[in-house]
Design brief:
The two termini of chain A are 49 Å apart. About 5% of the residues of chain A have low confidence. Chain A is globular, with a radius of gyration of 25 Å. In chain A, helix 9 runs antiparallel to helix 11. Chain A contains 15 helices and 21 strands. In chain A, a hairpin with a 5-residue loop joins strand 4 and strand 5. By secondary structure, chain B is mainly alpha-helical. In chain B, 77% of the residues lie in helices and 1% in strands. In chain B, strands 1-2 form a two-stranded antiparallel ribbon. In chain B, helix 7 packs across helix 8 and helix 12 runs antiparallel to helix 13. The N and C termini of chain B lie close together (10 Å). The mean pLDDT of chain B is 85. Classes of the chains: A alpha+beta, B mainly alpha. Chains A and B meet through helix 1, helix 7, helix 13 and strand 16 of A and helix 2, helix 3, helix 5, helix 6 and helix 7 of B.
């Protein structure tokens, strides 16, 4: 009995001491038994890539949602007629080639030969038409349109109004125009297809709710013969399988990555990055996301007056806001453009002079001009996304300095999504905008979308209309620059800067690449 | 006995009715709806409205309640709109990890707590007692996520003995299953142990000061027999109550542990359903949990009879 009691003591005390010691010194004691592999290791490897992803999608059918969680996983199984290269330009994918008619109302797609679906059937023109009809059912971008089977390997898209952006819409990654078998496309409900069958390098195997989606290499995959570029070109499954696990807790994703349980951890908290960087065998991947936007309620309240919006914009110190939200310069850029510098067709710095002014005097003068009488400004925010919350807090402090009375309304994210639809409920909120393929896809620019904040600018609408039909890309870029200039004067939103998201991966992953989310084709596993 | 059980079962009906009305009201009154969560952030208000119509979310709230409530009597708890499956199926799909976690954590906590409680009571006032109770106090005040993270860092990341997170069902092999369950069970069990050991100690102290114990000791009955046969059995009723309560909270309250260790259990199911505003899942799961709680309480009450003959329900 005595001996037992003593050993009890001993074990308890030992456990407590060791737990606290280890907890305090996790960074430098991490096991380094995973020796660094050479970067020139062989590619085709087999094995199972274990991915830790923060959220479970509602469906894998990319037609049904714009959610990133669907897009990132669906890219493994589905392909579209066209996709984007590394400069965000359109290139063929399931189409062998495409031809736009002179009046830009008819696009003819020649399909690649020998492409098979995961159910073993050949992909035909009928599958394309059925899929595209399901995808474009209510698309405002397409307008009145018609898909037609010309022959087994040819389909045409006929538009009633010409559009120069149509190819970008078809290649867009917000709602991928995935091709699926005709019967599945036709029987699908709005909430998504019942079966996930595509033509991609991996096939869907199993979905354990809130746990894992399993993908396996599709042996009959016929890769494109063009060189790999961005999301297109030659794609190959170099591993046997991918386990797409759902790990909502950020620290669990980090710990799982460091311990070697996961090969890839998506979306790491900014403050956990030094921990990953200091762990041998783990690599941090910073990828450009888009813009952090401060959205004004322009329908009612003080910010329906453009002078008030200009006053706020004149006052804001973007460096402070962006560093509060994204912690380090590595993760944000003070950029006023709607597009990433790598998006060569659309990038422009027009309107730069109105960005990051930090001019309190000017702001106060504008405030006076607007006749501001101390009305309370409600900033809608959520702690579910810590960076939006931190940006809101930093902005609140600067507005208070300017003399604007503010109130922070903090909700969970689904509540915020509903409240931002109610013009009575708020004056401003922060949200992120993932970069798009064309200016017309930013919902906050177009008055027709009635997107929260309710932009009503006939000039912007007119320019978007012109961009849509402009044949010459150079001219389209000039028009985009004009939109951007107006945006920085009328301020439907304030783009506080560009930001990046961070993932981490194991050095065992060979050839890992990302563009608009992680991509696991052409990626090997060196266990 | 039978009529007692029947009476208790009948008294559950109004409780469940009240629970279902309250849960339904609360979840439908808070803002946010599944349509916008499902369609993604860049969806237009028009698309959201259309999906709301299709999902029946635009019906008057009383109609939605009647629809849901009448379904329950036919064993239909509704369908998860996010996961696209019946709620009961979703519940049963998530109960495995939770039950396993609760049973393991409870076993660990009993194994630690009752000996500690008994020893501390026996050595009341000595340094042994003080040390045990200090540790118990520490356990009580340590947030469960901290305990979970420290264990994860030590055994998962630094020593690499056990997987950091995840789950494997027993069908994949017992050891495989246990590998994933050990750390969550310890982190949860250790905290429960703190509660149970304090309760065991005070209950044992009460009993040990009673006359029949003194008599037994005076008669020269062995120490061990006095403690484990005469005292512990009588001290067990309050301990049993606490065990019932902690087991109930293990099944329903392991949300944090399940999240940190990424166990796809009931806690995660409810949390995810709240984030997704998956109404039917929240309503159904909470109703099932309430039922389980009521049944567990009934079971504990019946167990009293086994431990203490004075509270047996004798036929008259």
């Amino acid at each position: 009995m005595n001996l037992n009691r003593k050993s009890y003591f001993f074990i308890m005390i030992l456990l407590l001491i060791s737990i606290f010691f280890m907890g305090c010194s996790s960074e430098n004691t991490a096991s380094d038994k995973e020796a660094k592999e050479g970067t020139d290791a062989v590619k085709a490897t087999g094995g199972t890539i274990k991915v830790a992803y923060p959220t479970q999608p509602q469906t894998l059918d990319p037609h049904a949602t714009t959610a990133d969680a669907t897009r990132d996983a669906a890219k493994l199984i589905y392909e579209a007629l066209v996709t984007l290269d590394s400069n965000y330009e359109v290139i063929p994918q399931l189409a062998d080639s495409y031809e736009v008619s002179e009046d830009r109302k008819t696009i003819t797609f020649k399909l690649r030969e020998g492409v098979k679906f995961h159910n073993g059937n050949d992909m035909t023109a009928e599958d394309i038409v059925a899929s595209m009809e399901k995808w474009g059912k209510d698309s405002a971008e397409l307008g009145e349109h018609q898909w037609t089977v010309e022959d087994e390997r040819t389909v045409t898209l006929t538009l009633t109004e010409p559009s120069s952006l149509i190819m970008y819409f078809l290649a867009d990654q917000g709602k991928i125009a995935a091709i699926m078998p005709k019967d599945i496309a036709e029987s699908a409900e709005t909430t998504g297809a019942a079966e996930y069958i595509g033509t991609g390098p991996f096939k869907f195997i199993e979905w354990k709710q809130d746990e894992v989606i399993k993908f396996e290499k599709f042996d009959d995959y016929v890769p494109d013969t063009d060189e790999t570029d961005g999301l297109g070109g030659k794609k190959e499954a170099l591993v046997d399988a991918i386990d797409w696990q759902f790990v909502p807790d950020s620290s669990t994703r980090v710990n799982g990555l460091i311990s070697g349980q996961y090969h890839f951890a998506h979306m790491l908290a900014y403050d956990s990055i030094p921990q990953v960087e200091n762990s041998p065998g783990s690599v941090v991947d910073i990828w450009p996301y888009g813009i952090e936007g401060l959205v004004f309620n322009k329908k009612q309240g003080v910010f329906s007056d453009v002078k008030m919006r200009q006053a706020v914009n004149a006052a804001l110190d973007m460096e402070v806001i962006m560093s509060s939200a994204f912690t380090d310069k590595e993760f944000y850029q003070l950029e006023n453009s709607l597009f990433l510098p790598s998006q060569k067709a659309w990038y422009s710095d027009a309107g730069k002079e109105n960005y990051n002014q930090k001019d309190m005097e000017k702001a106060k003068a504008l405030l006076k001009e607007a006749g501001y009488k101390g009305e309370e400004v409600v900033i809608l925010t959520s702690r579910d996304y810590e960076h939006h919350y931190n940006a809101a807090v930093a902005t609140q402090q600067q507005l208070e300095e300017l003399g604007i009375t503010t109130k922070l309304d903090v909700y969970d994210w689904p509540t915020l999504l509903e409240r931002r639809d109610d013009p009575e409920a708020y004056d401003m909120f922060f949200t992120g905008f993932s970069t798009t393929s064309t200016p017309n896809q930013y919902a906050f620019l177009d008055s027709q979308t009635a997107w929260p904040g309710w932009t009503e600018n006939s000039e912007i609408d007119r320019l978007l209309g012109e961009i849509k039909v402009e044949e010459d890309l150079e001219k389209a870029l000039a028009l985009t620059a004009e939109v951007q200039t107006i945006m920085w004067e009328d301020l439907p939103i304030i783009n506080t800067g560009h930001n990046s998201r961070v993932s981490g991966y194991s050095e065992k992953l060979q050839g890992y690449n990302q563009m608009l989310g992680p991509n696991f084709w052409n990626v090997g596993l060196n266990e | 006995m039978k009529s007692y059980i029947l009476k208790r079962m009948l008294s559950m009906i109004p409780v469940l009715l009240i629970v279902s009305v309250i849960v339904f009201m609360i979840i439908h009154l808070i803002p946010g709806d599944p349509a916008s969560v499902m369609l993604g952030e860049e969806a237009t208000p028009q698309e959201v409205q259309e999906l709301r119509d299709e999902l029946g979310l635009n019906l008057p709230i009383y109609e939605q309640f009647i629809q849901w409530f009448s379904g329950i009597f036919q064993g239909d708890f509704g369908n998860s709109i996010y996961m696209n499956m019946p709620v009961l199926e979703a519940f049963l799909g998530h109960i495995g990890p939770t039950l396993s976690l609760a049973l393991l954590a409870q076993s660990i906590s009993i194994a630690i707590a009752i000996p500690i409680g008994v020893i501390a009571a026996k050595r009341r006032g000595t340094y042994v007692d003080q040390l045990f109770m200090t540790i118990a106090m520490l356990g009580l005040s340590l947030p469960s996520f901290l305990m979970a993270l420290l264990l994860m860092l030590l055994f998962g990341v630094n020593l690499n003995w056990l997987p950091v997170a995840g789950y494997a069902p027993i069908s994949n092999g017992l050891w495989n299953h246990l590998q994933y369950m050990i750390l969550p069970a310890i982190s949860l069990g250790a905290i429960q142990a703190a509660v149970i050991s304090r309760m065991s100690r005070s209950s044992m102290i009460d009993i040990l000061s009673m006359n029949y114990i003194k008599t037994a000791k005076a008669k020269g009955v062995k120490d061990r027999v006095v403690i484990y046969k005469h005292a512990l059995r009588n001290a067990f009723i309050p301990i049993l109550t606490i065990l019932g309560e902690t087991f109930g909270s293990l099944i329903t309250g392991a949300v944090v542990t399940e999240t940190v260790f990424n166990l796809p259990g009931i806690g995660q199911l409810v949390i995810n359903a709240i984030v997704r505003r998956d109404y039917a899942v929240i309503q159904g799961t909470i109703l099932i949990i309430a039922l389980a709680y009521l049944l567990l309480n009934l079971l504990i009450d019946l167990l009293y009879g086994l431990v203490d003959p004075r509270v047996r329900f004798n036929r008259k």
